[in-house]
Each structure stands twice: as C-alpha cells, then as structure tokens.
C-alpha cells in the first residue's frame, strides 16, 4: 500500500510538470520539497508510517486469532478483551491515517498530523510500559498481556520505535527568522531532538579540533540568523533604546520584555517556561539517587525479605536519575546561555548606539586624584567617558550576563529546600522539623553577613572603576609619559590605586569565606539536631538505610545554601553596574541637540547662544568650572564660497564649527533664535585635532565612500599626497595605526603643514575643481595665506562674540597678501618620475594578536564515622550504644573541619592577593616600559583588555577556580581511596572512568582552547571599535557614517557571538558526557555490591555508594575546572597567559645605578650629534641618515623641512625613543650611557599634539606636587595665557579649572599654551618645540615664545 501511494504521488507530481518549462518544473519541485519537508525529514515519516501499518497488522492479527469474528455483548466474559483489541485496531488505523496525511499534506499541516501521530503513539506506549514492562521489575506482578507472547514484545518494540526512537532522531525543520531572507541553517537548528539534547551536533567540531593544531574560526558552526546582531537589534531596540517611545523604565524590565514578547524566536516565551520545567525536573531527579540507595541498603539489611521491587530497578535508577537530571540542567544552561549571548550582543549594540548620540565633552572627565593617589568622590563619579564605556562593555556587561541564572535563586533553591525537608521527614519523621527550626534560627546570620558583603562589594567595584579610569588615561597619554620620563611616578600612583582596590577585594574574600563557613556549619547543625532528636529523644535506632540517604540530602541542602549565597553577590553586582545608571538617567544631557532649521537653505545663526553643558545662564560657576558661551546675533555664511573664521586662541572658533551641526547645547537668545546647516548635499568635517581610522591610508581617504579611480587620483594630487605615498613601500595600502602613528603631523592635519605644502594646498585644492562651488568654513591662524582664497571672513573675540564679519579683504585687512616663495616646488611635491619595479609589499602595521597554538578529607571521615555509628545498632542492642560519645566525636570532627578549612582558605586568599598585586604591578611596568614601536603596533583596546578583563579574571574567577580545583582534586582522591579500601574491585572501574574522562577531557580541551583563543581575538576588535568612534564622534556624525559604523560593529559582534555560542555548547557537550560517565560508575558499583560481593554490610555498602555518588559528581567538576584552569591560566589566549605574554614584550633599557649621571649634570645645554642614523623598527629602513650638528648652550636652533622629512623623528631619536646608531652627547656625556628616565627628565619636548591629563589644571602642570602655586601662575603668564583671557571673566582658566581627559574641553591653542607652561616649569636645559604653537595665532605665538625665551629658558637649546 505504501509503495502504491508513493508511486501515485510521484505520478501526480510528474503529471503536474508535464508540458511546462524549466521554471515551472523548479516551482513544482519546490512544492514537492515543501510537501515532504526535506529529504532528511521524509524518511522518518515513511518509517513512522511503516511502524503504524505493522502495528495495525499485529492488532488485527491478534483480534482475529484470539477472538474470532464474534463481536457482540452476548458473551460478557470476553467482551472486555474483545473491545480492547478492537480499540487497538481503531487506534492504529487512526495513526496510519495520520501518517499518510503527514506524507501527503503541505508542510505546516504535515507537521500537525505528525505531532498528533506521535502523541497517540506515545500514550499507547506509556500504557504498555505500565501494564507490561514495569511488572518485570517487581517480585509480585506479571505482565497483563503476557499471554500474547511474541506479539506483545513486537508491539512494544514497534511502539517504542514509532513513539520514541523516530521522533527523537528525526531532524528538526529549519524555520528562518525572516522568511524573506532565509540563510543556511546551522547544525544546531536542524539537529534532531536526541542530538540537540545530548549536544552531539558538536561532535564534528570536537573531531576537527583533534586533527589540527588550531581550529580556525571558519570551521566553527555558522551563526544562526536568530543570533545575528541585525535581527537582535531590530527586535530589542523598541524596548531598550533610550529614545524609543516604548522603552521600559528600567533596562532589566526591558530585557524581560525583549525575551518574552519579542520574536527573537517564534515561541521564546515557551522556552522561559521550559527553563522552569527543566529546573523542576533536575530538582526531582536529585532525590532519585538517595532514595534508590536507601532501597538498596534496605534490601541488603533484610536480605531481600519483604522486597517488592527487584534491585536492578534501583540500580538502573541510579543511572537514569542523574542522566535525566543532567539532560535537564544542561538544557536549562543552554537556554540561559542563549539569552546571555544575545543580551551581550544587544547591550553592546545599545551602548554603541547611545554613544553615537552622547555629547562626549559635556563633562570634565576622570579625576586622577592628588599626588598621594586619592581623589574626591565627586570628581571620581564624574569619570572619563571612554574609560566608563570600556568598563561598561567589559566588566559590567560580564556582571549582567552572570545574572542569567536568576531562576536558580528564585525557583530552584526554594523548591530543593522544600523537597529536602520533605524527604528527611519521610525517613527521620518529626526530628526533621527540629533541625529545620535550628536552621531557621541561624538563617539571619548569613543574611547579615551578606548585607555587609553587599556594601563592601559596592566599594570594591568603585575602586575598580577608579583604577580602570586611571589605566585608561595612562594608556591614552603614554607617549607623553615616556617623553617626560614619568614612568616610575605614574606607576607608583597607579599602584596606590591598585592597593586600595586590593584591600576591598580582600575584605570581600574574607566575608565570603566567613559566609561559606557559616553556610557549611548550618546544615551540619541541622543534621546534628535531627540525629540527636531521632536517637536521644525519640529513642530510634539509626540504620544504614537512614543514615546514608539522609547524609546525601543534608549535603544537597548544604550545597544549596552555598549556591544561594554564592549567587546573591552576583546579582548585587548586576544591580550596581554603571549600565543601569547610564540608561536610567534622562537622555537630555547626552543626546545631540536637534538642529533648529528655518525655511531657507541659509547656513548660519540668528540670536543663538551655545554652551558646553545644559545649564541656565544665570548660574554661577565655581573656580573649577568654565562656562564658555558662544553668543551670535546674526551670522550668515556665503554659500559656494570659502568662509574664513579667525581670532585669538580660545575665542570659540572650533566651538562655532561644532555648534553648527548641533554638537553644543543651544540656548535661543530670543524666541525666534535658530541655527541651520543644510545636510541635503552632505557635510564634511576636518577637525583641528587629527583623527584617523586604524586602517589603511586608502580607506581613511574614502571613509566609506565608493571608490572612483579618477576622483581618487585627483584628490590625492590636490592634497599633495603623491610624494608621501611613494615614501611608503605599500603606498596607500599602508596601515596608519592607532591615532595615525605611521604618519607625520602634516600628513594628518593642516595646521602642521610646512609652508610649501600649505601653498600647494591653497593653489591646488582650495582653488581647484574639487572645492569650486562648495561652501567651506575654514578656521585658521595663517591669515596671509588663507585670505587670498576667502570671500567672507569672521573675526572672533576672546569672550565668544563676533568682533567683525564681512568681506575677507576688509575684515582680515589689506595687509594680508599672498605668501611668496622662491624657487619651484614642483620637484618636491609632484610624484617622482622614477619607475620603481612593482612589488607586493604589505602595509600592515598592527600585529595580529598572538594565538598559541569542596572540603578536603574531612567529609569522607565524617561520613564513615556516621556509618560506623549506624553499624553499632546492627551488632548490639540500641540501649548499649553510647549516643553521647558518638555525638561528641562527630561534633569534634565538624569543628576541626571548619577551623582547618577557614585557616587554609585564608592563607590562600592572602597569597592570591599578593599574586594579584605582583602581576598587576609587573603588567603595568611592562606596558609603561615598552617601546613606542610596540605601542604603535598594538591597539589600545587590546592593552585595555589585559588591564581590565584579564585582571578581573586574575582577581576573582581565576583565584576561585584554582581554589575549587584544588579542593575537588583532593576530595576526589580521598573518596577514591576510601571506596577502594572497602571495595577493592572499584579500583579497576574507577581507573577506567578516570582514563576515559581524561580522554574526553583532552578532546574537549583541544577544541576549547582553539575556541577560547578565537573568542579572545574576537573581543578586542569590538572594544577597539568603540574607542575609535568615541575619540572623534563628531566626525562620524558630521559625515553621517553611523550606518557604516554600525555595519562594521555588527560584523565584529557577530564574529564574537559565533565563537561564544560554540564555546558554550562545547561546555555543555563535555558536562553531559561526564555526568553520564559518573552515573554509569555509580550504578556499576551498586550492581557489584548487590549481586557479586559476598554479603557486604549495609554500612560499608552505604559508605561506598555515598562516596561513589560524590566521586562521580567530582569527576565532572575536576575535569571542567582543570580545563578552565588551563585555559584561564596556563595557555595563551586568556587571562594569566595573556598577561604573561605582555610581560615578555620588548622593553626599553632598564634603570641601573651605573647609568646614573653626576649630580651636577646637566650644567649646560650643550648638544652634539655625530653621524646619527635612526629607524623605527629593527628591520625597517633608516628615516634619518648620517645627521651631525652641534648646538651650543643658549643657542636657538631651527629645524625645517617638508612634511614627512623627519623633523619629529630627529627629536624622538635624541630622546632615544626610536632605534638609533651614532653618538649623541648631552653636556659631555653620551646619551646611550644614561638611564632613560635621567635623560628624558632633563629634556623637555612639546609634541605636535599636546596631551593633558584629566583633573585640575594644577595637577596637569605639576602632577606630583613639586611646586607652589606662585611658580605655576608665573609659568602660565610667561606662556602667554594672560594674553588670551579677559580680566574678571568666568571663562578664564585658573589652577582649579577642571580639565577633561586629553584636554577635550579646551581648544588646541589653549592646550598648546598649557603644554608650553608645563615645559617651562621643568626648567630643562634642553627644550624641543615640535610645532608647539601651530594652533596659536601668529601674534600670540610670537609673544609667548619671546616671553618664555627671556624669562624662563635662558640657557636652553631646541
């Protein structure tokens, strides 16, 4: 019949395609595919159909052979069986019809029919199992349908095949997230129920990892469409985005709404229900083992008398119970892992999206504290935004995802406590309630300690934020620190912050240990009170069948209390993360002000005021605050022309450019005030401070725009980059590195261009075809050069008002004439005519991240002693057993166990704190002491990962992992020895289990290491993308490249998500198999004790089984902890090994006493250079060739040359920041014979890009409190700060003025003046100025240098 149906169906399909074209055939084939699902899904349906037909045939045969054809009510003695057989025929006829429908109907209806088929078959199988299979496990029952003989067993086999085997091995059908954008399904999405729940779909990954040295990312399972960041964002942002009208008031409830109501999976809310079901199943299966052990011990005690169930049933239960429980808990963990990974992706994207809106310069930044390392709480709360976001998407995000198992605390723990008490009551009667009363009385004690622990954890997290902020800032200005020779002092300051953090961490650990000890003792007090009541008051006798099951449950209760107080601090950390504060606050202060546009396309302002922060104009500012205000009555720029903006330093020129696109807070000066910037034709923004992507030169030029060869060549030519590109071996494929370290100052920003290049830019670019017809707003101090191309000009005053505006020729002045140069500049700036042979050269700069290929002893003694006590009731009358003596001995054992554990753990924690201190100190010393070249090659985000995420692992997870691993191994060994002494036959299966477990562990470890390495490498680019974007979010918003930024970020998040999901599934793969191994070991031992060992005592058998259950559980923990310990601590790619890698990075020469110069040195500024060569890398080309000169004391030496000629490289070589050869003498001593800190602390350089620290201006000028305020004010005045400030103005800069990280709340010119003042305070004999006044007006720059020269540096050279 089946063959006839298939042949008919094929004929129908063939007929439907006859006479049609190829397209019609394809459509028909697709429909046929939909009808039969996929080929892999069709075969199980046919198998189910065959099983149903066979069952129908057996039922019909049984009916006719057993009852004939008489089906009437005239024979009541046989009517029941006849009707039952007839009902079987109807049932299997119905299932056959359902199977036929599942083959012939369309996809959706076919699934409905198949589900109904399985439900009917499963119901029938359960009935047969109860009536005919369970009686086989009893002494007093027989199968109800045993008379049917082989037909009964064939029916049960077919039912098992149709109801159990076929459904669990049938691959699941892939349901795409978006039906219109179907992707290749992952093995996880199409795995059968059996494969899914035992995670065998990960077998290919494990197998592949064992065949290669390193499993590459491309061989990992693909990313499921439901995990794709684009889909996650689409579904979650309506509930989480701060600007969404449907956003929840709190991010926690928003996430609940996302995973309950959203369509991240069609039935995701059912998966939440499934989580609860799995936890309940796990909780129930926990009691199968102690109950089965109790029944086996009763069988041994009574010799099998009065037993109703055969022992092999309880032996099978010892395997099936833990196995089912393991499947349940691994399934729960799988679901929580899915939610955690998706939450991580969603929050990362959410923080990124919100950071694209926030106003970075709204606050002053992170306070580095005073010289002694302390800082006021107020300034510490106002932390640096970049450090805050780094901490947000690393430590805080980890804390949030750690809280994914909240159901363990809310459902699992209470349920297990209730079931434990019920179980104890069933065997110890009313005495269990006495122990429960003791536990309730003692329960407030750990609650009080947990409350204390909460407060200390909050403080510890605050100290961690302070340290992370300090590390972030040090890394951001590390080049300046090295140039000034501040490595040691900055290291000491950071060490003070680290020491304060470690104090709070140690306090947390001690309270945690106290809490653990109390939680360990409370169930033991409960147990003691119960046993005392049971034996002394109730005068009952203890037996092995009572002691060992109750001991197991008491241990479960202890572990549950430990779990409660372990997870409580995790949820405390979730509650105290910065993320909640960040998204709970109003977005008004953060989001960019929308542009107030009039009805015209004019570019300009009308009755507009702008400030850094949103505050009323009448508020008074403290000395630490500067409330600069830009006030414009009317300003309309000339469209299609070059508009010039100039004025003194700090007058608001850059402020005006940032206000126009809405980057500043807008305050209308009148009801009709507005500002407007049409964006229909696009906006380009070139910031005064250089910002480039950590990418190739070509990608930086394009910045997401499509590549047009002709236009690209024209841009390179007009920007005078042809000659520069020829200097790089890889041309425009050269990576520029972070912050453009490969490029010179002039190659990054206009202000640092030499005079000839500036002339080229004016002639070729500003007067060229690319600029013609565009509206250009040009802020510059080079008026003679820029005025020749400007049509309109605006002159700013120091108080933020417009001084003059109008035609450039009138505003700038008639004296502004075009700069004249001598000679032709074509030879320097046109591309060279030499035809170099083409060669493939890599322009890669950034180096790839290196990817390298319980209680101890006492618990066993306690269990044995209780078994020995129980055995006394078997060998002598109950009245002869001295209960007080046994109770006293047991209490002593408990006390010794608690004291020894506390002492050993406290000593361990002291050692872990010492190790954390040393590792952090060595790490920071290594990073601070490395070379500039290494810093150029290594992204800051990668360094930040070492200093934040890896240090966090070192402080917490790694320390606890090491402790738990040591406890587990020692406990496992003690239990193995204890079992082997009483049951020597256990040695062989125990050793085999360890060997097999080790084999599984090695397979797992190879795959885990590869995935962990890939995960580590995938995480850093996500952080790097944050850093790159936040450093100049203004440019991203101006160019409107947010979409490109999101696309790149989502690609990085997807890569990380793909690796993380694989890692989580791999952990579940090993966990399930180790649980199965442990359950098999326990059931094997039970079978031996019952059937093969000659008359064992119940106490010894109970002790062996109790130890075997504990040993089986410890195998999994020991293997997982060992692998985690290796991954976290011993192998590269994670935590300790990654920190160790950074301890081996290239270092600058160490400080030695033999290289300390005399006390009088330097007495003059004499500098002599002989045959100096320099290069940036050992295998790189020389950038300086045979330089020789002599600068005498007091001389002023000017170093000139075109952009990229090596001016800055010369200064770096004199400070020994790059590789040099030749001789440099400073005041008669060769500089290579001096310690670097001695050399650099006696020289001062003001680099092209001035860098400032966050904190007050006083801390920037004198970070180590070595000078008084009078000296600092004199330096500011001599540097020219007074020339650009107005008397009695709230906008003036004072020593108490708060400086944002990097000086972001100051103009470039103001930063250069402060950098000059800082240099004057050092009073070095040798001063280098590298374009130090490029952003200061020519007039003010000249005044500043003359004043500084006369008053502060009379004997300096530079």
UniProtKB/TrEMBL annotation:
The answer on whether this UniProt entry bears the keyword Transport reads: yes
GO cellular component labels: membrane
Instruction: Report the superkingdom from the record.
Output: Eukaryota
Family annotation (PROSITE patterns): ABC_TM1F, ABC_TRANSPORTER_2
Q: Where in the cell is it found?
A: Membrane
Q: Does the keyword Transferase apply?
A: no
- Report domain ABC transmembrane type-1 positions: 277-573, 861-1126
Query: Which intervals hold domain ABC transporter?
Result: 603-841
Write the record's keywords in alphabetical order, separated by commas.
ATP-binding, Membrane, Nucleotide-binding, Transmembrane, Transmembrane helix, Transport
Q: Which is one GO molecular function term here?
A: ATP binding
> What residue intervals traverse the membrane?
41-64, 84-105, 112-130, 150-169, 273-293, 313-335, 406-425, 431-450, 511-534, 885-904, 976-996, 1068-1091, 1103-1120
A Pfam family found in this protein is ABC_tran
Give the matching Gene3D superfamilies.
ABC transporter type 1, transmembrane domain, P-loop containing nucleotide triphosphate hydrolases
- SMART domains tied to this protein: AAA (SM00382)
**Which PANTHER family is this protein grouped with?**
ATP-BINDING CASSETTE SUB-FAMILY C, ATP-BINDING CASSETTE TRANSPORTER ABC4
Q: What is the name of the protein in this document?
A: P-loop containing nucleoside triphosphate hydrolase protein
* Source organism of this protein record: Neolentinus lepideus HHB14362 ss-1
Give the organism's phylogenetic lineage: Eukaryota, Fungi, Dikarya, Basidiomycota, Agaricomycotina
